[in-house]
Amino acid sequence: MDVHMSVMEGSVGILPRRLMVLEKDLFMARAVLRDNDIPVSD
Q: Which of 4, 18, 25, 38 could hold 33 in an S-S bridge, CB 3.0 to 4.6 Å?
């Protein structure tokens, strides 16, 4: 999905990160992110 994005960004960390999960794992993935205070876009 984000091939070579680190080259464009460098190590500044300004671009949002994306995570791909299977549809069946979506609920659990969102719960894990929220439990670790990581913003989740719905």
A: 38
